[in-house]
Amino acid sequence: MKDKLKKALKPKRYQHSLGVAKTARILAQKYGANVEKAYIAGLLHDCAKLPDIKEQMKLAKKYGMEFDEVTLKCPAVIHAPLGARHAKEEYGITDKEILDAIEYHTVGRANMTLMDKIIYVADMIEPTRDFDGVEKLRKMADKSLDKVLKACLKQSIIHNIKKDSVVHPNTLEAWNYIMR
Prior knowledge:
The chain is mainly alpha-helical. The chain has helices at 2-8, 11-31, 35-44, 53-62, 69-72, 79-91, 96-103, 114-125, 134-143, 145-162, 169-179. The longest helix is centred in the first third of the chain and has 21 residues, at 11-31. The chain starts with a helix and ends with a helix. The relative contact order is 0.14.
């Protein structure tokens, strides 16, 4: 899997994927999830993050995938559901827990599973990430997965608002679910 992924991704994206896989493994050990599944989901989470959106849409068309209007307004998230399909077709992944974690790693969803939470958080805090507040998130991840997930969702929502971008409904549903 690593060799195939390394050939498919740009070096920086591949290093990010390795960082997410390692971080996911650590979080899985800490919070009682399947360590191997977390590593695989982390490794493959960006397997369909092709260099530009046109290539991603071409791959989606190959798989017969269509996206709703809101998702099309958030092109940066298309690689996630596309990645779940690509992981199945190109990497032979059939485990629903892994595929779901890949699918929801960018936007989250209401009632996220333990694996969903781990991959969502690992993607945001892995070692190559460098943004204001990432160190605080990394420290939070040592104490509470649910608290760091909430902080990561908040970070994502605020980031999109500051950019005058659409906030994906799944992210808002995840936030509202946690707040209830």
